[in-house]
Write a structure and sequence with these properties.
39% of the residues lie in helices and 20% in strands. It contains 13 helices and 13 strands. The model has no long low-confidence stretch (mean pLDDT 95).
Length: 333
């Protein structure tokens, strides 16, 4: 097997509690050709200072830098622009990684025919509280966190299998793309869908989006002809902090709606079938009514989207469509 260089990028923002387990397991991979770049985006570099004091050994394996909080999109874009690897693993700081995670998933991508350029694996729920009392195996649950991003015919995006027992979830034959919590991208695929900015730099994740930025990138990669591979024989454990364990804040709810609307404006194709068009329209109406009747503050999303109309249209025109709408519809459930 080839051993191409892999860059693993992690954004750090407070949540020091996970790092002794999460980053330690990530740095203990049995794959040798890895470049680690950790970016602390905490307001005052709190995580960087914590690692300096509590885990100075991390600096021997990883490049750890401090920077302005550019959110998920801008932070990962910054890392991608400086990466030296052939693959980019967009990882998270609240996960427990098996030692063979990287070698297993790269082997599956490198040895495939046709070639896989995008991948994820089984994300399972991690019971962090059980981990804290010393029961490592018991913290690894059989509850699915995500098998990737699913897409309905009405353009509802969801994490496949989330909250269900593993035995009750079928392995999906096709998925829109990987969850932004853990995604593996070949640099060639990222470059193929990147936006070219006036300063000459590339924008991979859309920096106008925070929530749903992974959905938008997955959709653009699907349009470009890069299907997502699910490495079903490997599991990573995720202590999801939003959704399963706590309710979304007012801002998060608004930003999620904004991300949905912009993703749809950019990726929806006028050549979709009438059934898709009708279901999508109904979905949009229901989302508006839900915000109007139950979460009035979320209506701000519509004003935010309107402000970005010209840029969204420009980005829509730049999307590379190497497959036809029928092939995208085949991904829908």
């Amino acid at each position: 097997m080839n051993h191409p260089k892999v860059t693993i990028g992690v954004l750090l923002f407070r949540d020091e509690k996970y790092l002794s387990y999460s980053l330690a397991s990530l740095l203990d991979q049995d794959y040798e050709n890895i470049e680690y770049i950790f970016r602390d985006q905490s307001p005052n570099g709190e995580v960087y200072d914590y690692i300096t004091q509590a885990h100075p050994e991390f600096f021997h394996k990883a490049k750890i830098e401090r920077g302005k909080n550019l959110m998920h999109s801008g932070g990962h874009n910054t890392i991608i622009r400086e990466m030296k690897g052939e693959y980019y693993i967009c990882a998270s700081n609240d996960m427990l990684y098996p030692r063979d995670f990287v070698s297993h998933i790269i082997r599956g991508m490198e040895g495939s025919e046709p070639r896989h350029y995008i991948a994820t694996c089984k994300l399972m729920q991690w019971d962090y509280e059980t981990m804290l009392v010393g029961n490592v195996d018991g913290s690894k649950t059989n509850i699915v966190d995500s098998y990737g991003i699913g897409l309905t015919r009405g353009h509802h995006f969801y994490d496949i299998g989330q909250g269900k027992e593993e035995k009750d979830v079928e392995i999906p034959k096709k998925i829109l793309g990987p969850s932004g919590a853990l995604a593996v991208y070949h640099k060639k695929a990222l470059d193929a869908v990147a936006y070219h900015r006036e300063d000459g730099s590339k924008e991979y994740f859309d920096e106008n989006l925070h929530y749903k930025n992974d959905v938008d990138l997955a959709y653009r990669l699907s349009w470009a002809g890069f299907p997502c591979y699910l490495a079903k024989d490997i599991k990573v454990y995720h202590d999801r902090q939003v959704g399963r364990k706590c309710k979304k804040s007012v801002w998060a709810r608004m930003d999620s709606l904004k991300g949905h609307l912009i993703t749809l404006k950019k990726n929806f194709d006028k050549s979709f079938s009438w059934g898709i068009k009708l279901r999508t329209l109904i979905n949009l109406i229901l989302r508006f009514l839900h915000a109007l009747l139950l979460h009035l503050s979320s209506l701000k999303a519509y004003f935010e989207v309107a402000k970005l109309k010209k840029e969204t249209e420009r980005k829509k025109r730049a999307i590379q469509k190497n497959v036809n709408p029928t092939q995208i519809e085949a991904l829908m459930s």
